[in-house]
Amino acid sequence: MDKSPQPPSECDVAIIGGGPSGLAAATELKKLGVNSVVILEREAEAGGIPRHCAHSPFGMREFKRVYNGANYTLKLSQRAMDQGVVICLNTSVIALHKHTQLTLSTPHGVQTLHAKKVIICTGIRETPRAKRLVSGQRPLGIMTTGALQSMISLKHKRPFKQPIIIGTELVSFSALLSCRSAGIRPIAMLEKNARITAKYGTQILAKVLGIPIYYESELSNIIGKHHVNAVDIVSKKSSFKNRLQCDGVIFTGQFIAESSLLSMSHLKIDPHSANPIIDQFGRCSDSDYFATGNMTHPVETAGYCWSNGIKTAQLVYASLKGRLDCYQQHARITSASADIKYIIPQTIAISSKKNELAGINALQIRVNKALKGRLSIRSGEKILVQKNINTLPERRVELALPELVKNDANASLQLYFESG
Amino acid sequence: MIPTSNHQQNKQNAHCFDIIIIGAGLVGCAMARKFTLAGASVLTLEKGADILDGASKGNSAILHTGFDAPPDSIEQSCIADSYQEFISLRKKLHLPLMKTGALVLAWTDDEAERLDGIIKKAYRNQVQDVELLNATRILNKEPQLANHVKAGVYVPREYVIDPWTTPYVYMRQALVNGAKLNCSCEVLNGEFNGEQWQLKTNQGEFKARTVINCAGLYGDVIDQHLIGSSTFQIRPRKGQFLVYDTPAHRLIHSIILPVPNEITKGVVICRTAFGKLLVGPTAEEQDDRDDASVDSETLQSLRKKGEELLPALADVPINATYAGIRPATEFKDYVINHHQDKHYISVGGIRSTGLTAALGIANYVFKKHTDDTQAYSTPEKIIYPDKLHQIAENETRDWQMRGNKGIVCHCERVTEREIETALHDPHLAPASLDGLKRRTRVTMGRCQGFYCSAKLSEMTEGYFQQAIAENIKQENYNG
Ligand SMILES: Cc1cc2nc3c(=O)[nH]c(=O)nc-3n(C[C@H](O)[C@H](O)[C@H](O)COP(=O)(O)OP(=O)(O)OC[C@H]3O[C@@H](n4cnc5c(N)ncnc54)[C@H](O)[C@@H]3O)c2cc1C
Ligand SMILES: Cc1cc2nc3c(=O)[nH]c(=O)nc-3n(C[C@H](O)[C@H](O)[C@H](O)COP(=O)(O)OP(=O)(O)OC[C@H]3O[C@@H](n4cnc5c(N)ncnc54)[C@H](O)[C@@H]3O)c2cc1C
Asked: Could you tell me the CA-to-CA distances from B182 to A226, B2, B21, B236 in Å, in that order?
């Protein structure tokens, strides 16, 4: 049934996940001359999320032209295979062990794979209804954008005709477009704040399509025994409940790292964001494991993740050559503010000798609500770096990576935010 | 469910069964098994598209010893009997079991004072291996518990079982031994002519010598429709739950039970056979018998309560939320009435222990019934159904085996072969996505269908009464 190769029992670098970042990392490693590079992909085809994005634009960075998601992933996979990357499909990584040993499940059962280095690129997913603790019944017709898009573009099916869209992130508007492509007409979009989360201006799209956006409104109840037939929404402004007839609910965005493999292993994750804990070289708490792509920073575009993959490949190569070994001491950064959603890397590795290897050169920060003020990284009282920001949720905020010296090892650095 | 052909249907309608069971919940499934294995011809009528569509849809999955049941009640005796039978049957029927034990924990001095009473009651109920533990011993056993625990009672033989496979297997065994099951078949009313019952349903009329009402949340309604009155009134009592993701499964070993209290019902923290952890259930009286909706505020408060007792839960994501409805009545005990003159048995108010007690309830009813009618002649051979794909985590799962065709639901590791096997089941195929979930666990994990719904919508096409999605006509498609 599947023509893809069976996973070997040993390789130089094993890459978990064949999305844009995994494919990029694998291709780059081969270009650098690494002998055996294996991608382990649990789906029947490589490509990750863009595989079921029927829409454009993808590929500007990678190919200097625009493709739709499906063709873009075909191109990426082809390029990887041309370089000699082994792509094992229908291969799920089940567990990560010490000494870079992986447990895999394939249609032939369970096996293990031992790699010198492992790169985890398992991507992200959206927050479903249950985790949002939404009230109501649990009928058919409730799903996330990702599920909807794959239903439409891979299976030519639609689960409803008049759903409501929850959220106004970029992906929410992407859901709107996917609906349109399938003859689905959303009744409205719901946003709990007074403005959309996506870049200002994106709301024009809804306007053009004639779909209302209800601001300062939240979903309070889902109704329907077998299939959704209505929802209640409450608005901050009017404070009374409004019942809207609809036949589906699309929960969009609120991306989280698909880090469940890590959470069941010896590797550490940040429990609040679920992001893997990495240093500026992308190394996890077990330094033979690396993580890259969207799982380290929900959410960026495919092109961005592709660049991440290449950068990480170069660092993995350096690590294979022993050039990262002098960075074994770490300082940990924690956030002192509940308004900070996450920061990566969460640890900074410090070299025991002068070394010119550059990893990620900036800290990335995401916030939970609109923030204006000053961000700083401190070690005790001492301010190491700081920056004025004026930002919104889901916007990338960068801060220079503080320069640390040997005796900062094991230091605990604090990320502060002061409004004003 | 593969629809019964008209021809078969007519034959069933004309045939007079020994027993018609109304309702295929936990109790109905065990009842069908008991009477079939004893040699009776049995037809079960279920109004849901699938079995387990009522109260039995959502429970805590604990196999109770009955240590805290009301002494000398029918409930207590059915639990005790059932427990024994379950343990002795489970290997033959391939029913999973997790030997967790339970801790009844006191978090205040007031609760600690009541532990003595719990031990005394356990003794009266013949559960003699209970043990009083102080805080140190409790925390040694369960180091992740909040350290303000005062004391507790250890009940070593309270276990966790698989709440779906268990009744499926009961019903399957009935079916492979010749019983019949009609789903989507609602009993509307009926008449007894002194010898035979004639039940009217939306699928026509069915005849039987004896009717057993196992209609759970509709038990009183069925009584009224068939014998004119009921000795009890159903008072639906909802219980909401949170399901925590796999990492939570490692936080605790035992089932954590509250000290019962008249004013507030504490929550239970309990691992599941599927590698998750439950926090719940609430106990909320409501009028509606079907509305198993969850509500945000209650879920938040459950979360808070759970984190108070097991602080590490704060770092574990919630996978799912659900609610079950207990068929409670105005009485504390089960209400099992045998109307000998009418060849009618009503099994009502199997409130919160039916998963455990179902086998015992079936034995109890069978005994009552055969005291006054001729016993059936036991069949020469009892067939044990084949082993199903195991969905419990402490068993070997299909993804670990050759030829599984690959994993479809990644969170719960459900393979293509498992889904196909369930869909093609000649005895008890699912008729809804919910039914498929209960047989395989698909979409029940952390992503709730993000990765697999597309594939599932394709695989299940044509199998369910209500499809997951419809095909897009070309003219509608601009993708
Ligand atoms: C619904 C949705 C819509 C999006 N739309 C856009 C868009 O329009 N444009 C855009 O630029 N970006 C979009 N994104 C962002 C998207 O995450 C990135 O484009 C890109 O896919 C990230 O690449 P990645 O390699 O990090 O992860 P992914 O593309 O998510 O790839 C991860 C891969 O890992 C595999 N995997 C996971 N766990 C395992 C395991 N245990 N074993 C084996 N394999 C595993 C998965 O099957 C998958 O193929 C969207 C994201 C979502 C969720
Ligand atoms: C929150 C909660 C937690 C629980 N925890 C546990 C536990 O840990 N351990 C334990 O042992 N027990 C537990 N239970 C109890 C157990 O789930 C119940 O006792 C059991 O489900 C009752 O089953 P039943 O067959 O009587 O009712 P039901 O499951 O309601 O079955 C009745 C069936 O009859 C059908 N029906 C109704 N009317 C008609 C009609 N007119 N025609 C045809 N069919 C009809 C319904 O569709 C239904 O399928 C719990 C229950 C709840 C709600």
From this structure: 20, 10, 10, 25
Boundary of a domain, candidates A271, A304, A325? A325
Within 10 Å of residue A14's Cβ, how many Cβ atoms? 30
Interchain contact, A128 vs B449, CB within 8 Å? yes
Query: Which has the closest alpha carbon to B197: B213, B208, B186?
Result: B208
Mutation for A interface: B279, B325, B414, B446, most A CBs within 10 A: B446
Kindly report the protein residue whose alpha carbon is nearest to atom 19 of ligand 2.
Answer: B354
As a residue count, chain A comes to 420
DSSP bridge pairs for B67: none
What is the B295 CA–ligand 1 centroid distance (Å)? 32
Closest by Cβ to A42, choosing from B403, B410, B448:
B410
Token output for B468:
């997951």
Mutate to test the pocket of ligand 2, among B212, B235, B271, B352 (most ligand atoms within 8 A of CB): B352
H-helix segments, B293-414: 296-309, 354-372
Question: Which helix (DSSP H) or strand (DSSP E) does residue A179 occupy?
Answer: helix A170-181
| pTM for this prediction | 0.96
Gyration radius from chain A CA atoms: 22
Do A339 and A405 lie in one domain? The reply is: yes
Task: Enumerate residues 6+ apart whose C-beta is below 8 A from B120.
Answer: none
The number of domains in chain A is 3
Q: Which of A129, A183, A227 sits opposite B472 (nearest CB)?
A: A183
Within 6 A (CB) of ligand 1 lie: A 16-22, 40-43, 48-50, 53, 92-93, 121-126, 145-146, 149, 171, 174, 258, 261, 293-295, 299, 301-302, 305
Among candidates A31, A18, A126, A25, which has minimal Cα distance to A73? Answer: A18
Q: What is the pLDDT of residues A242-264, one digit of tens each?
A: 999 999 999 999 999 999 999 99
Ligand 1 atom nearest residue A302's Cα: 19
* pLDDT (0 to 100) of residue B479: 46
Of A129, A157, A182, the CB nearest to B448: A129
Asked which of A251, A271, A292 is the last residue of a domain, the reply is: A251
pLDDT tens for the 420 residues of chain A, in order: 457 899 999 999 999 999 999 999 999 999 999 999 999 999 999 999 999 998 889 999 999 999 999 999 999 999 999 999 999 999 999 999 999 999 999 999 999 999 999 999 999 999 999 999 999 999 999 999 999 999 999 999 999 999 999 999 999 999 999 999 999 999 999 999 999 999 999 999 999 999 999 999 999 999 999 999 999 999 987 766 799 999 999 999 999 999 999 999 999 999 989 999 999 999 999 999 999 999 999 999 999 999 999 999 999 999 999 999 888 889 999 998 899 999 999 999 998 776 667 788 899 999 999 999 999 999 988 999 999 999 999 999 999 999 887 777 778 999 999 998
Domain that includes residue A44, residue range: 1-125+255-325
Q: CATH number of the domain that A61 lies in?
A: 3.50.50.60
Phi, psi of A323 (to 5 degrees): -85, -5
Distance CA A178, CA A209 (A): 12
Asked whether the beta carbons of residue A129 and residue B478 sit closer than 8 angstroms, the reply is no
CB contact under 8 A, B454 and A128: no
Q: Which of B59, B99, B121, B51 lies closest to B350 in space, CA to CA?
A: B59
Q: Which of B353, B361, B434 to mutate to test the pocket of ligand 2 (most atoms within 8 A of CB)?
A: B353
Residues linked to residue B238 through DSSP beta bridges, in sequence order: B284, B325
Residue of A328, A337, A280, A339 whose CA lies nearest to A308: A280
Q: Within this chain, do residues A320 and A332 fall inside the same structural domain, yes or no?
A: no
Decide: A331 and A346 in contact? Cβ < 8 Å. no
Q: Assign A349 to helix, strand or coil.
A: strand
B208 bridge partner residues = B17, B197
